[in-house]
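Re-run with default settings, no changes from the original entry. Doing this only to confirm the output is reproducible before filing.
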Amino acid sequence: MNNLLKNIETVRNQMIYVGMSSGFTSEETIKLSKKLDNLINLQMKYRNMSA
């Protein structure tokens, strides 16, 4: 789970950097946003399973 949280933070930071440099609607920003969504959904799934 800690690794998942680290991945979420890494992708979030990458997305912010790319968004600031390439624009928030750039293809790379959108790709990172979708990746971040998937990671967060996975985290929520694990959280719900352990509750």
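The chain has a mean pLDDT of 96. The longest helix spans residues 27-50.
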